Every structure is written in structure tokens, then in C-alpha cells.
Amino acid sequence: MSINQANQNGHGAYCSVSGLLRERFNSRDLKLFAPHPVRSAQTGRFRTRFRGRGVDFEEVRLYQAGDDIRSIDWRVTARTQVPHTKLYSEERERPVYLLCDQRSCQFFGSVQHFKSTLACHIASCIGWAALSSGDRVGSLVFGDHDFHDSRPKRSKHAVLQMIHLLEQYNRALTSPISDAQSVSLAQILSDGRRIAKPGSALFVISDFSDLDSAAEKELFHMSRHLDVTLIQVFDPLERQLASRTALAISDGDQRKLLPVHQKNFQQAFESLAQRKQQQLTDVCTRLQIELLPISTADDYVKLLRQRFTASPRMARRR
């Protein structure tokens, strides 16, 4: 398989614009939200049980004290000689923000693709799905030292802008080693919380490798005002070394061979990985935040379809 073919299929170290555009076809069966009244006070395409000034006509009833005179149905009033008011279905909106981590810690993979590439394809797939549902789509793409955000819009140009940002930040990665000035997960979440409006749906796509108390605090504040979903991208090699006979690591200056054949080393490595994963799981459980882990060895499209399905029983309700 050529490098271009690998990029288009979502495989390899880097993504491509053409490959991310193809995610539009993979997103056709995704339904991010089940129909349900939402808490946002913004007007939009989510129908609620509230009745007031909206778009869809609901019914005509007798005028009541306090009704807006602009809603009076003058034809019915003239015919019955009794004031009547038009009622409409009020609509609400849930903007969708996609926060994608493209820091150096994401530039790693041992199976089909790098975590950074997988994150880009997941973000693109969810972005197309949100747009097809009539949602406004906004994005935040983070690198080691900066980020770029695009305000939510109900337009394919919003998704296209995100795709170009994803490729730009993805192509800038050259090493899995971050420098001392690299932004932390807590800083990323803080910026995401500041930009995303209350009532919005926020999808955070990262490996969450540097989850700490500061990041947990940001998640706590996020969960109070946003509909947060964490999508964790990881590589099997980060959790288990048993199948490896030799493995070398390097910081760019020195190279060291890890004793992966030693059982004690394997157990210690796996125990550390399990503790970190349990920490993330506990945080999500405590804050009632949804967590969806996806491995670089997984069929991410299949997993997304299993999670975000059109079935009323399976689709998540908020």
C-alpha cells in the first residue's frame, strides 16, 4: 500500500484532507443525539416541550392574560369574536464543539495508524455527522504550543475548515517527545471550557496521558455546563508488552533497550497502565461524563456506529 493510499484509508503516521473528506460517507449512520428536549436557552433545531414563539405551528387556544399580543390569531378572533392566540413549538439548539489533541504525545502508533491520525479521522467523522443532523459545528485543534478554534456554524465550510486545521497540525508533528513548554491537558480543557458556550455538546479527543488533578478540576467545571464526551485514543503497546521480544526507547540523544522479556517488568508496566486507565474511568464515573476508548487497532467506524446509532434504545438521551 502506498503512503497516499494509507493516508486516504486513515492508516499511517499522517492524515490527508482527502482521507478526512471521505469520513463524510462513514458518518451517514451516526446519530449523535436522540430527540430530546435540551437545556440550552438558544434557539435552533432541537424541538422541545416548551411552547412559545418558535417556528412550527402547534395550536390555537383562547387568549390568556400575559400572552404576547403579537401571537393573536386575528382571523379566528374575528370569526369567533373571542381573542385567540397562536402557539408554536419552541426549538432549541445544541452546538457541537470538537476538541482534538494534536500534541507530540499523540504522535505514536504500533498497529494501523498513529493516535494523532486516528484522532483526526474520529473528529472528522463526528463533525460530518453533526452537520448532517443540522447542528452548528465548531472546533478546537491543539498543538504543543498553540491552538486554533473555529466558531460553530451550520455549514459544510465549518467542517472543511476543521479538516484543514487537523491536517495542518497533524503534519506538523515530527516526534512523540514534547518539550518543556508544551501545553498541558488542563490548559487544553480550560481553553475548551472558555470557548464552548453553556449547553453545547463537547467531544474531547485525546489520549489523556497527562490527566492530573488540574485537568480533573477542569472536567468538573465542564460537566456542570456542557454535554461532555471523552473519546480516548490509545495504542495497544501502551498497555501490554507481552508480545514483544525487544523494544528500544530514545529521547533523541540516548537509546535504551527495555527488558520486555522480564515478567516483573511486564507486570509493572501493565499495572501502571491499568492505574492510569482506572483513574480516567473513575473521574468520568464520578462526574457522569461519557468515556469511549478507541484503540489504533480497532475499527473506529464500527465502534462509532455501535455507540452513536439511530436506534432509540441505543442512542444516548440528554
Give a short synopsis of this structure.
Pfam families: DUF58. This protein has 2 domains: 244 residues, von Willebrand factor, type A domain (Rossmann fold); 47 residues, no CATH class. It is built from 10 helices and 11 strands.
List keywords for this structure.
disordered C terminus; 10 helices; Rossmann fold; DUF58; disordered N terminus; 318 residues; DUF58 domain-containing protein; 22% strand; 2 domains; alpha/beta
Topology:
Layout: H1 3-8, H2 17-21, H3 23-26, E1 46-52, E2 56-62, H4 74-80, E3 84-92, E4 96-101, H5 115-132, E5 137-142, E6 147-153, H6 156-171, H7 185-195, E7 201-206, H8 213-225, E8 227-234, E9 247-250, E10 255-258, H9 263-287, E11 290-295, H10 300-307
Parallel strand pairs: 4-5, 4-7, 7-8, 8-11
Antiparallel strand pairs: 1-3, 2-3, 5-6, 9-10
Descriptive notes:
- With 318 residues, the protein is of the alpha/beta class.
- The chain has 2 domains: 3-33 and 95-307, Rossmann fold (3-Layer(aba) Sandwich), CATH 3.40.50.410; 46-92, no CATH class.
- The protein is built from 10 helices and 11 strands.
- It has helices at residues 3-8, 17-21, 23-26, 74-80, 115-132, 156-171, 185-195, 213-225, 263-287, 300-307, and strands at 46-52, 56-62, 84-92, 96-101, 137-142, 147-153, 201-206, 227-234, 247-250, 255-258, 290-295.
- A 6-stranded mixed β-sheet has the order 6-5-4-7-8-11, sandwiched between helices.
- Strand 5 and strand 6 (147-153) form a beta hairpin.
- Helix 5 (115-132) runs antiparallel to helix 6 (156-171) and helix 7 packs parallel to helix 8 (213-225).
- It is elongated and about 90 Å long.
- The two termini are 43 Å apart.
